[in-house]
Amino acid sequence: MSTVSWWTADDVANVEKDLARHPKAGLWGYTSPAELAHWVFADPALPAAGELAAPSVDPLDADLDEPARASWALAGWYIWMTVPNPVETDGKLWFLNQRRVRGRSLLRVTLGRLETLWLFEDGDGINFHLDKVAVEAAFDVGVIDEDAWFARVTERDHDPHKTLRGDKVGYTCDSVDDAWWALRQPPVLAAARLVNAMSLAVGGFTFDRLHRPERLARAWSAAQVHFDSLTPQPVTGAAFDRPYRSPVVDPAALTDTRAFDKQAYVAGCDEHDRLSRWLIDTLAATGILVGTGLAKVPVDLAWQDADGRQYIAEVKSLVGASPEDQLRLGLGQVLEYRHRLALLGRVVTPILLTSAPVDEVWRDICRDNGVTLLVDGDPLPHGG
Question: Model pTM?
Fold first, then answer.
């Protein structure tokens, strides 16, 4: 599954419209507004074999100490993850610059008119720009751990430049590890991609005079050596508290009152179990194990995908019950669980799973609250 709780299809469409307002951008010789808009929100992936030419520079050569290697590695990782079509556009629409500033080596990634990443080779102070709207949306729905973020990342007081969508924000980290932690999270990565895509759409300069192709080779080779993965920031901790077990309901043991329909209750429990088993079996077919409970929060189902991203699901049967009441209850529960887990440092993607088609407005309501509504029979998001 992909992390989808902080953006919607409307966001992709709006980014595409913003990009398409610049039909003469040189970028469109390499991609399209629609393709680039989808790339902004897509999960990062390892480059295909042979996609980047074999490096001509050894990143471990004697003139680079460990901090310098780490700085070059971050630059390489950042370029590959946040620059559209980096190999084809290197030196044409963007470039990696290296210059001396007060006796220190400064690395800068410049796209169009905007410097989007800059850091000294000695690793002291890493600066980058993010789209403000995208970052705030991620914070609003709790997919960024705020305590960890503010412990590692500092917002610069004054950053006057704007993107096509509005304000961008400048950030500083004290170390390469902190910057990589921040940028590796999918919503932060998307915010960086958004700034870069908009910068290139506006147009840029010709970098032929300053371009050195071996710099990209060195940076990417360093990244391959220094970092063990290009995947999003994994969630730490167990994927669930315990294995799922089907409930055992004895109708004879239920309280007999006029307000209580025992048959409807049993039918609802059976439907809840069927839905849970469907999700468990579907994910098991892809090698993902699903359990119940997470960090002692009583979620119905919990699991992590292959990249370590944590999901929770609240299951709601609509058998013999008011769909509106059940959906209100389920949405409230999964939002409570997400909040409680965030307080424990567990960032999760919430899903509300129901047993029957519902009014389409509920998909919008859930999406607006950062929850994916999944109806029995729907394909899992991005194929599970």
Answer: 0.60
What CA–CA distance (Å, rounded) separates 347 from 333? 16
CA 132 to each of CA 135, 193, 310: distance values in angstroms, whole numbers, following the listed order:
5, 12, 25
Token representation of residue 268: 């609802």
pLDDT by residue (tens digit) across 279-305?
Answer: 988 888 887 889 999 988 999 999 988
CA separation for the pair 129, 112 (Å, rounded): 14
135, amino acid identity: V
Q: How far apart are CA 234 and CA 207, in angstroms?
A: 37
Most distant CA atoms of the chain, gap in Å: 85
> Backbone dihedral region of 246: left (phi > 0), alpha (psi from -120 to 50 degrees) or beta?
beta
Q: Helices then strands (H, E): number in the chain? A: 12, 13
Let me know if 250 is exposed, middle or buried by CB neighbors in 10 A (0-12, 13-18, 19+). exposed
Cα separation of 376 and 263, whole Å?
A: 22
Where do the domains of the chain lie, and which CATH numbers do they carry? 9-226 (no CATH), 242-383 (3.40.1350.10)
